[in-house]
Structures are given as structure tokens and as C-alpha cells.
């Protein structure tokens, strides 16, 4: 598998100035168990591939002072789907890049061609329009999941603010943030939906979304994995009200 990935993307090292810096196999940690990482210090970019016969991902991370930016920095990190969306103005066939609809070999070749078509992004200081990408991704989410137009933005704004307010409140109650999957690789098993966990004396308070395949518009508070609150943006499409309801529940749970 490593050879298949490296052979497909050999042009990165032979033509585009990248260096192969890491190979890792971990089927417990990564969805695509084989992870191969390339870096180009001159272009200030890192490319991370995660793949197996059932999964593929490629993340493109900018380097600042030689260090990859955090995965949570959505203006400086883009995955291959985002690149395809921008390149085509969201007019492409997503199944071209999904292993479940093709063999891994086909997906690897399709992504290889995608990267080659976007050579300037990989070899120069030219970068992507992150704001345009966000809008196109939201439009794609609305189309794919049939969501009302307001929900994708509201749910993202909700969780971003809830993380801040919950962290402030729970730290005052003696809880410590022990997990935030926005800082995990998007190809890690625990990264599919937004999630944070706070702990105090073996009590875990977890805030996060349902699996996107079941209900990406639904968030929960769990205490030691017991469901204590459900926030459903279909039922109440009001970001501020949902934030207030969540914090009120945290107050109740820690009283």
C-alpha cells in the first residue's frame, strides 16, 4: 500500500520539490490506515495522505516558520475535496474521489491529476480563497444533505461559540479540557464530527455532534456517555437560543 501511494504521487518529489518525510501504519488511529506525508519547505506546504482499500483523504497544510498550521485553521488547511470544489466552482463529481465508488487505484489517479492541475498552489506562494471555499462547501452541504439554507452556518457558529463559553464556565467549576478533535487529523477515527470533552474527578462532560451520516445538524451533551441534552437545528434554527440552552444545561449538570 505504501508503494502504491508513493508511486502515484512520485511527481511530488521528482517534479514539484516535495520531500517524503513520514510513513506510518496505524489502523486503530487512522481511518485510512496508511499515512504518507510530504513537505515542501520552499513552497511552505505539507501534504498528508491517508488511505486504504476503503478510505482516502489528502490534507494540504501551510507551514508557518516551518511548522504545519493547526488542522483547526480552516483558512490555512484544505483537503482535496475543497480543492476540487474550488477548481470546478462546485461542479464536479464527488464520486470520482470516493473509494467506495471506485477502486483505490482510480481515486489515487484522480487525486494525482487534481493536484497536477493545481500545480501553482503546490509550488508558489499563491493560496486559495478560503471565504469562497467556505461558501461553496456550505452550498454543497445544503445540496447533499437537503438541509435548510440557514442550518450549516448556524451549526458551525453554534459549536464555535459553545466551545468558548463551555470552556470558560467548566474551568471555573474545576473541569479540564482533555480532548478537542478540531486539532486531530481529519483522517483520524475520532475526527468525523465536532467534539470536545471536559473532565473532573472521572466525570466526563462531552459536547458534540452526531455522526454526520445520521444527523449532522444534531448536537448533544453527554455525561459519562449518558445523553443529557439534544440540540436539533431542525427544531430550533436559532443559534443564540441553542447556545443559551446548552450553557443552561451545563449549569444544571454542575450545580
Q: If you had to describe this structure to a student in words, what would you say it looks like?
A:
- With 255 residues, the chain is an alpha+beta fold.
- It folds into two domains: 2-145, no CATH class; 151-253.
- It is built from nine helices and eleven strands.
- The strands form two sheets. Strands 1, 2, 3, 4, 5 and 6 form a six-stranded antiparallel beta sheet that branches. The protein has a five-stranded antiparallel beta sheet with strand order 7-8-9-10-11, covered by helices on one side.
- Strand 1 and strand 2 form a beta hairpin.
- The mean pLDDT is 92.
Task: Describe the structure in brief.
The chain is an alpha+beta fold.
Give the structural class.
alpha+beta
Q: How many helical stretches?
A: 9
Q: Which runs of at least 5 residues are low in confidence (pLDDT < 50)?
A: none
**Tally of strands:** 11
Return Rg in Å. Answer: 20 Å
Keywords:
255 residues; alpha+beta; 2 domains; six-stranded antiparallel β-sheet; five-stranded antiparallel β-sheet; 9 helices; 38% helix; globular
Amino acid at each position: 500500500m505504501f508503494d502504491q501511494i508513493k508511486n502515484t504521487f512520485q511527481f511530488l518529489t521528482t517534479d514539484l520539490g516535495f520531500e517524503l518525510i513520514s510513513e506510518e501504519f496505524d489502523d486503530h488511529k487512522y481511518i485510512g490506515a496508511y499515512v504518507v506525508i510530504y513537505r515542501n519547505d520552499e513552497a511552505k506546504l505539507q501534504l498528508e495522505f491517508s488511505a486504504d482499500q476503503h478510505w482516502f483523504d489528502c490534507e494540504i497544510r501551510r507551514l508557518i516558520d516551518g511548522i504545519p498550521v493547526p488542522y483547526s485553521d480552516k483558512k490555512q488547511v484544505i483537503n482535496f475535496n475543497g480543492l476540487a470544489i474550488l477548481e470546478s466552482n462546485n461542479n464536479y463529481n464527488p464520486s470520482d474521489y470516493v473509494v467506495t465508488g471506485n477502486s483505490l487505484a482510480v481515486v489515487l489517479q484522480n487525486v494525482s491529476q487534481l493536484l497536477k492541475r493545481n500545480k501553482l498552489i503546490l509550488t508558489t506562494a499563491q493560496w486559495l480563497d478560503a471565504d469562497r471555499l467556505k461558501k461553496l462547501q456550505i452550498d454543497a452541504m445544503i445540496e447533499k444533505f437537503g438541509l435548510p439554507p440557514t442550518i450549516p452556518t448556524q451549526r458551525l457558529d453554534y459549536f464555535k461559540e459553545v466551545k468558548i463559553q463551555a470552556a470558560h464556565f467548566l474551568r471555573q467549576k474545576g473541569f479540564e479540557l482533555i480532548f478537542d478533535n478540531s486539532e486531530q487529523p481529519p483522517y483520524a477515527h475520532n475526527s468525523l464530527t465536532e467534539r470536545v470533552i471536559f473532565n473532573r474527578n472521572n466525570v466526563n462532560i462531552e459536547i458534540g455532534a452526531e455522526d454526520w451520516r445520521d444527523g449532522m445538524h444534531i448536537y448533544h451533551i453527554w455525561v459519562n456517555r449518558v445523553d443529557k441534552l439534544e440540540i436539533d437545528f431542525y427544531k430550533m434554527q436559532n443559534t443564540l437560543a441553542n447556545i443559551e440552552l446548552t450553557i443552561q444545561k451545563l449549569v444544571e449538570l454542575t450545580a
